[in-house]
Amino acid sequence: MVTDVLVTGAGGFIGHHLVKYLVGKGYRVRGVDIKHPEFEPSAAHEFELLDLRRFDNCLLAARGVAEVYQLAADMGGIGYITAFHARIARNNTMINVHMLEAARAHGVSRFLFSSSACIYPQYRQRTPDVTPLKEEDAYPADAEEGYGWEKLFTEKLCHYYHHDYGLETRVVRFHNVYGPLGTYEGGKEKAPAAISRKIALAHDGDEIEVWGDGEQTRSFMYVDDCVEGIHRLMRSNHADPLNLGTDELVTVNGLVDLVARIAGKRIRMRHNHAMPQGVRGRNSDNAKLREVLGWEPSTPLREGLAPTYRWIESELRASGRIVEPAVAAD
Ligand code: NAD
Known about the structure:
By secondary structure, the chain is α/β, with parallel strands linked by helices. It has helices at residues 13-24, 55-61, 78-83, 85-105, 147-165, 191-201, 223-235, 252-263, 287-293, 301-318, and strands spanning 4-8, 28-33, 46-49, 67-70, 110-116, 168-174, 177-178, 207-211, 217-219, 221-222, 242-244, 249-251, 268-272. The chain folds into 2 domains: 4-178 and 221-244, 3-Layer(aba) Sandwich (Rossmann fold), CATH 3.40.50.720; 191-218 and 248-318, UDP-galactose 4-epimerase, domain 1. The strands form 4 sheets. It has a 7-stranded parallel sheet with strand order 3-2-1-4-5-6-11, sandwiched between helices. Strands 7-10 form a two-stranded parallel sheet. It has a two-stranded parallel ribbon with strand order 8-13.
């Protein structure tokens, strides 16, 4: 039987990959976003341009579907989410409140909300060798300003819709996701893409700027693992929030070294302490993920960074931005 599903945020990075994955699994997919995917056409059977801050558009988007993957959000890397608290919190509150209510009004059976590791308390993330974050660590709450507080509130709203209306909600807390076809410039890009861009544009021996002292730590999940995990969670019976990430911790300096090795370039770092660096350390505790799904993301960082770097480099080359150093004439 073909299930009709809606993927919102289908013009964005994870949504675009998720649409491809679900189409490959035999679902009939409607993609909705305020914009088309940037780098290649959507694989969705239907793709509609709608501003999901408006309730009437959410009702249109969710018509006739059995399941909703709610990935639409105003979001970006650390520079973006620390600069626009009101705008991000307002836009995402409108999208999530209206999408949940539209799903309920249409009798949708399952609704997946894309939350974030940014909901975790800042007081648990003050050292680079941070203890991996467990789902229950979310409270007492001290989320990332703006973006994180909105995600935490919507997690609660999902719980209320589950409890009061019987809507089967699924809540996934992504830890940084990276891979090809993600934003790599313009201010919304995240560390793996930004570093790949800087190194692709650099010559052997050049210096690149790194935000903070580079000793801040993170874990990063390859997008193929991410979409598989999303689908597995949707099919599970687990209504409580669940981490989805890897526990392979790396410093930002370590990330630069990895990308430089993939690029085959010697790269020096200039640390800019004036730029935002987010929490000092963040890692995912995957015990519950393994217990609930019997599975966890498995792509090693080096393996996922290689195609990511190559894709960004090819984009920059295609747009004429990579200039080969002049070869000295004899
Ligand atoms: P993205 O920015 O690439 O995709 C989000 C999409 O939502 C964009 O295409 C955007 O146009 C769309 N959108 C924004 N406002 C909209 C509106 N008013 N109406 C319709 N569409 C709108 O981000 P992503 O990395 O694909 O993230 C997907 C989801 O996962 C988001 O909810 C994000 O908060 C969450 N998340 C992502 C990460 C990550 O590392 N990428 C980490 C934690 C959480």
